[in-house]
Fold this sequence. Notes:
Elements: H1 7-28, H2 33-57, H3 59-62, H4 64-75, H5 77-88, H6 92-122, E1 125-126, H7 129-154, H8 163-185, H9 190-198, H10 207-239, H11 243-255, H12 257-268, H13 272-297, H14 312-329, E2 333-334, H15 336-352
Antiparallel strand pairs: 1-2
Helix pairs in contact: 1-2, 1-10, 2-4, 2-10, 2-11, 2-12, 4-13, 5-6, 5-10, 5-11, 6-11, 6-12, 6-13, 6-14, 6-15, 7-8, 7-13, 7-14, 8-13, 12-13
Amino acid sequence: MTQALSRSDRVLFAAAVLLIGGAALTRYADINSVLAFVLSGLTIAVLASLVGRGVDQLGDRLGAGATGVLQSALGNLPELFVCIFALRAGLTKVVEAAVIGSILGNILLVLGLAFLVGGLRNGVQRFDGERARVIAAMMLLAVVAMLLPSLAFQLHTPAASHERALSVIAAIVLLVVFVCSVPASIRRTSEEAEADHAASGEGRWPMWLAIGVLAVTGVLAALVSDWFIHALEPAIESLHISQAFAGLVIVAIAGNAVENVVGIQLAARNQADYALSVILNSPLQIALVLAPALVLLSFVIGGATFLLVFPPLLVATVVASVLVVSIIIIDGESVWLEGAALCGFYGVVAASFWWG
C-alpha cells in the first residue's frame, strides 16, 4: 500500500492523525477553547482534503462531471455535520451564514484563486463553455429558488406568515431538481472516455484504498464537527467576532477545504474543466442539497429550526455574486485578472460581515 502513496499522501495522512489526536486532547481535557477551535477547524480541513484526494484518485475513471458531483457531495459532508451540530446548539445565525458563505467562498474566493493561479502559471485557460453555462444557469436558478422564501418574508407578501411551509416546499422542489440534474452532470465526453482508456494506472491508489479513505474520513468528519461546534461559542466570545462572520468565513472555508485545495491544484495543472466542475458543483449542491436537507433535518434532530429565510444583505450578496460569476465564465475562458477581481470582491464581502 505504501508504494501506492506518494510522499504528499503520506504527509497528509500523518497530519490528519496528529491533528485528530490534538483536537481530541483539547476537547476532552477541556484545554483553551480558542486552541480547541483552531485545531478542530484545521482537522476538518485536512479530513476534507483527504476526501478530495480520494475522489481525485477516481477522477480519470469517472470524468470531469462525475468527479465534480462526487467530490462536491463528499466534500460538503464536513459542513453538513458542522451545521447539524450548530443547529442542535441553537446557533442559527452561524448556519445561515455558513450556507451562504459556502456558496460565496466557492464562487468568489476558490474560483478566483483558481483563475489567478491557473492564469499566472498557464496563461489564458479555456474550458467547456457549454458545461460551464449549464452549471451557471442551474446555480442561478437554484439560488433564486432557495432565496424566494427570504424575499417573500422581507417584502411582507401574503406568504410571509407561512415561511415554514414555503421553506419545506422549496426544499423538496430543490432536492427533486438535484436528482433530475445528476444524469446530465455525470455524462462523460468522448475525450474523457479516450483519456480514461489511455491512462496507464501508474500512481493510482487501489480502488479499495480510495473507497476506504472516503468512508473513514466521513465518519471522522462527523466526530470532529461535534468538537468544532463545542469550541465555537466560547471561541467567538474570546476572539470578539460575530456569529455571522464565523459562519460566513471560518466555517465555510474549513468545511469546503476540498474545493479550496483540489480546485486550485487542478487549475495550476491546467485542467480547467475539472477545476471548474469541482469548484462550481459545490455551491450548486449547497443550494440544491445541503440547504434543503438542513431544512428537513432540523425538524427531527432537535435544537433550532432552519428555514430558507436569510437576512437581506446575505440575499443581495449571493445573488450579485452568482450573476457576476455567470457573466465571467460564459465565454468559456479565464484570465488571472478575473481571478484577482473575484478574490477582491470576496474580501469586501467578508469585511462587511465582521460586525455581524
